Amino acid sequence: MATGNRSYNLLSKLFHWVSAIIIIGLIVVGQMMENMEGPEKFELMGLHKSFGVLILLVLFARVINRFTNPVDDVAGISAMNAKLAKAGHGLLYLCIILMPVSGILMSQSGGHGVEMFGLALPTFVGESEALGGVAHAVHGLASKALIVLIIGHAGAALYHHFVLKDATLKRMTHGS
Ligand code: HEM
Ligand code: HEM
């Protein structure tokens, strides 16, 4: 059923690709931080936090843009595949919320402030070892889930493009 546009609008495409690059960078830097110590680790952590909070802010704008600009299912795709794609995207969005929220809670419950490029965030929670433990576990688990989802997601996009030769990837790049 036609409900919206055939392709993503320019803003959706920009949000998607800028967020994708930042999120992949955050995963790489997150893993690197795990094996570091000393001032270098804290420098990298400051950047990790700033870009992580930025992703959460961008997500608000992204969701508003997405709901005000609905997109049709890819032409010729089965109802089952369309549902699967929506479920996959839903899980990606869930991880994009869980990662920064758990990161902020993990930092603040450990008694550390959170800044986004020098701009201090309000304190949402006080020091708590229990909350810190949960937030840390969520951050680690959701990051593993995110890695699996991204691999499946990018793999599916490439499969659509090169094997099925449909418009799936094009409508997130230069298709109209
Ligand atoms: C989309 C956003 C984010 C992504 C994808 C991300 C990803 C990651 C990853 C992959 C790790 C390594 C985890 C592990 O291997 O166990 C990590 C660690 C960490 N992240 Fe994030 N992160 C994000 C946002 C944030 C935010 C907003 C904060 C804080 C304000 C934050 C604070 C931390 C801290 C403190 C660690 C180190 C935890 C430790 O010492 O074990 N992250 N992050
Ligand atoms: C790295 C290679 C990537 C490729 C080739 C790619 C490709 C695509 C394509 C073609 C779509 C549109 C799918 C459709 O029309 O049904 C899409 C949507 C989406 N992608 Fe990616 N993507 C990549 C990375 C990422 C990353 C890293 C994330 C976030 C973690 C992400 C999150 C999303 C989300 C949430 C949507 C749904 C957009 C919406 O309908 O609201 N993507 N991607």
Description:
The protein is an all-alpha fold and 176 residues long. The protein has a single domain, classed as Fumarate Reductase Cytochrome B subunit (Up-down Bundle), CATH 1.20.950. The protein contains 4 helices and 2 strands; from the N terminus they run αααββα. It has helices at residues 10-34, 38-68, 79-109, 129-164; strands at residues 115-116, 119-120. The chain has a two-stranded antiparallel sheet. Helix 1 runs antiparallel to helix 2 (38-68), helix 2 (38-68) packs across helix 3 (79-109) and helix 3 runs antiparallel to helix 4. It is elongated and about 50 Å long. 14% of the residues are buried. The mean pLDDT is 95. Bound molecules: protoporphyrin IX containing FE (2 copies). One protoporphyrin IX containing FE (HEM) binds next to helix 1, helix 2, helix 3 and helix 4.
CATH class, named Mainly Alpha
**What ranges have pLDDT less than 50 throughout 5 or more consecutive residues?**
none
Radius of gyration: 18 Å
Note the overall shape: elongated
Query: What's the helix-strand series?
Result: HHHEEH
Largest β-sheet summary: 2 strands, antiparallel
- What's the number of structural domains? 1
Q: What is the helix fraction of residues, given as a range?
A: 55-70%
Mean pLDDT score:
95
The portion of residues forming beta strands comes to: under 5%
* Known CATH architecture: Up-down Bundle
For this structure, the CATH topology is Fumarate Reductase Cytochrome B subunit
Distance between the termini: 19 Å
Category from helices, strands and their pairing = mainly alpha
Tell me the total number of β-strands.
Answer: 2
Counting DSSP H or I runs of 4 or more residues, the number of helices is 4
Q: Compounds present?
A: protoporphyrin IX containing FE
Order of the strands making up the biggest sheet: 1-2
